[in-house]
Write a structure and sequence with these properties.
The chain is of the alpha+beta class. 38% of the residues lie in helices and 13% in strands. The chain has five helices and four strands. It has a four-stranded antiparallel beta sheet with strand order 2-3-1-4. Helix 1 runs antiparallel to helix 2. The longest helix has 22 residues. The protein is globular, with a radius of gyration of 16 Å. The termini are far apart.
């Protein structure tokens, strides 16, 4: 298996993008965003995940993070995706969702080609990890993460997007704590 775009080390920072199958916009619903926030909080406390920046978009998540305390980021991401997949599907089934049948059918069909038996596939394979190797690269990724909601015309100011660490950096209320980086 290729290790390109995989975080196979510990104590090194990575820029990560996790994307839903077919870029389905699951995270337009507050309850689905809450699943992601709670899972990230769990990973911070129980799996040594340090988060420096994040943004939960409608169909994907960006993280600037690293695993600590002997944890390997690839293992943390595997467990995160496995847990959140189950919770996302459970929420689609149990909570009001106008696209329930369509989404369940879509995620079920995404499994048809898999060798391993699986009922639903929510996340695309991998998590596109890019190793942070310079201050210039980290600055570029930090700006990219916070500007994503602006680029998609969700907000005009990064700190106005509630599900982004831009709020942490602006000193505003936020549910997910991050480690603030002051590089420049």
């Amino acid at each position: 298996m290729s290790t390109k775009y995989k975080a196979t080390t510990t104590e090194e920072a990575y820029f990560i993008t996790i994307t839903t199958m077919g870029w389905v916009d699951i995270f337009t619903r507050l309850n689905q965003k809450q699943i992601i926030i709670q899972a990230l909080q769990y990973c911070q406390v129980q799996k040594g995940l340090e988060i420096y920046r994040y943004c939960i978009m409608h169909s994907h998540i960006h993280l600037l993070c690293k695993a600590t305390n002997g944890f390997i980021l690839s293992d943390v991401m595997r467990d995160f995706k496995k847990y959140t997949s189950k919770k996302i599907i459970q929420t689609i089934i149990e909570k009001p969702e106008s696209r329930r049948e369509w989404m369940l059918d879509y995620f079920k069909k995404a499994c048809e080609h898999l060798k391993r038996e699986q009922q639903y596939k929510v996340w695309q394979n991998g998590y596109h990890a890019e190793h942070i190797y310079s201050n210039k690269f980290i600055k570029q990724k930090m700006e990219y993460i916070h500007n994503n909601p602006i680029k998609d015309k969700i907000v005009t100011l990064a700190e106005d997007y509630y599900f982004s660490s831009a709020r942490n950096y602006a000193g505003l209320e936020n549910e997910l704590k991050v480690i603030l980086l002051d590089l420049f």
